[in-house]
Amino acid sequence: MAEKKTQPHKVVADNRRARFDFEIGEVFEAGIALSGTEVKSLRSGRATVAESYVSAKTGEAVLYNSFIPEYLQANRFNHEPRRPRKLLLHKRQIARLWQAVEREGMTVVPLKIYFNEQGRAKVEIAIARGRKAHDKREALKAKDWARDKQRLMRDRG
């Protein structure tokens, strides 16, 4: 029997700004309920999650303001690009998200949308706390110093 080839995750949309604006806490992997044209549009790799957020108020997690463009070949059967999309999580995970948002003043941000090994669309979401301006400056200084330190070690070594 032939071995099954494993493919790495195909990242469709990445929220790089979230790691700068927020201190990332616990990370979850969630499925996402999509229509057929949304999946085809995602496979072409043109989606955005930069300004989107997750809400879990009604007992189910919903991804708001994510942009998946219309699939051009679908004509009248197309989807709405910025519609709310239901996230598929366990009840305990949804409760943990909601408690963190209510009690600790955290927020839930999507980090990336990708296709897993089975070809299913997944969203990586995280519980995060917003950073202040001085925290962002400190993070930039630490990042720059780490880059300079790597450069120095590489030149010496």
From TrEMBL:
<dbReference type="GO" id="GO:0070930">
    <property type="term" value="P:trans-translation-dependent protein tagging"/>
</dbReference>
<keyword id="KW-0963">Cytoplasm</keyword>
<protein>
    <recommendedName>
        <fullName>SsrA-binding protein</fullName>
    </recommendedName>
</protein>
<dbReference type="InterPro" id="IPR023620">
    <property type="entry name" value="SmpB"/>
</dbReference>
<dbReference type="GO" id="GO:0005829">
    <property type="term" value="C:cytosol"/>
</dbReference>
<dbReference type="Pfam" id="PF01668">
    <property type="entry name" value="SmpB"/>
</dbReference>
<dbReference type="InterPro" id="IPR020081">
    <property type="entry name" value="SsrA-bd_prot_CS"/>
</dbReference>
<keyword id="KW-0694">RNA-binding</keyword>
<dbReference type="InterPro" id="IPR000037">
    <property type="entry name" value="SsrA-bd_prot"/>
</dbReference>
<comment type="similarity">
    <text>Belongs to the SmpB family.</text>
</comment>
<dbReference type="GO" id="GO:0003723">
    <property type="term" value="F:RNA binding"/>
</dbReference>
<comment type="function">
    <text>Required for rescue of stalled ribosomes mediated by trans-translation. Binds to transfer-messenger RNA (tmRNA), required for stable association of tmRNA with ribosomes. tmRNA and SmpB together mimic tRNA shape, replacing the anticodon stem-loop with SmpB. tmRNA is encoded by the ssrA gene; the 2 termini fold to resemble tRNA(Ala) and it encodes a 'tag peptide', a short internal open reading frame. During trans-translation Ala-aminoacylated tmRNA acts like a tRNA, entering the A-site of stalled ribosomes, displacing the stalled mRNA.</text>
</comment>
<dbReference type="GO" id="GO:0070929">
    <property type="term" value="P:trans-translation"/>
</dbReference>
